[in-house]
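Appendix B, example 12.
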Amino acid sequence: MSTLRELKTRIGSVSSSEKITGAMKMISSAKVHKYEQALKRLLPFKTQIKSIMGHLLNTDSEYSSPLLEQRAEVKKIGVIIYGSDDGLCGAYNINIFKHLIITLADLRNKYGEQVHFVLFPVGKKMARPVAKIAADDVEVIVPEGVDSKMEGKTVNDFTLGMQKRFTDGELDEIHVVYMNFISMSRQRVKSETLFPVSAAALNESADMAGANKLYIFEPDPNRIFNEVLPMFVLSTMQEITIENRASEQAARIMAMQSANDNAKKLLDELRLEFNKLRQQSITTELLDILGGQVER
C-alpha cells in the first residue's frame, strides 16, 4: 500500500506532467496557426500559376514537356515520404507509414512485381521505420540536408533534384506520401504523383481558367508552358511541405490533449486515494489517543 509521502510525490509528478502537456499543446496550436497563414500566403501564387496554365491549355496549341513524359515501361519508382523529426505526435508517423505500405502494394499490382522502389524519407521519425523495409527491390536514400522543418529554398532545391532524377531517366515515376491538412481536427494521409505531372492536375488548371479569352502569347505558348510547369511543381511541393508541418502540429495537439486528460484523471484518482489515506491516518491517531486515555 502506498504511503502518504509516496502519494504526495506522485501527485506532484503528475501535476507537473499536466502543466507540461498543456504548455506543449498551446505551442503546437500557435504553430498550426502559423502554418495556416503560410498556406494562405502561398495560395495567391499557386492560384496565379494555375490560371496561367489554364489559359494556355484552353488554346488550340499542343504542348510537350519532359515533365509530362509517360514512360512506356515503368521499372523504377521514387517515393518521397514526409514524416516528422520530433515525437509526441500520437500515431501521426505510424499512419503515414501504413499508407506507404499500401501505396507500394498498389504500385506493384499496377506495374508488376519486378518494379524497383527508391524511398526518400523526410524526417528522422520516418527514416527509422522506412529503413527496416529496405530489400533487394526497395532502396532507401535519406536526402542530405532535408528534414520536416526545411525552409522554402531547401524545398525547392530538393524538388529540383527529384525533377532531375526524373528527366535524366533515373526514375520513371515519383510519388509523394504525406499528411494532408484539412482542419485542426481533421487530417488524412494522401499520396500524389509528382512526376510525370498528372493530367488531373492540368485539367484542374484548365477548368479553373474557364473559357479562354483572346490572348497574344509572347513567346509561343509551348515555351511559356515549359517555364510555368516547373513553377507549378515547386508550388505543389511547397504546399505539401507546409500541410505536412501543420498536420504534425495538429496531431501533437490531439496527443497532448489526450495526455492532459489522462493526467487529470490520474491526478483526481491519486488525490482521492491521498485523502482517504490521510483520513485513515488521522482516524488511527485519534483512536490511539482515545485508547491511551481509557487505559489511564
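The chain has two domains: 4-26+259-289, 31-253. The first helix runs from residue 4 to 57.
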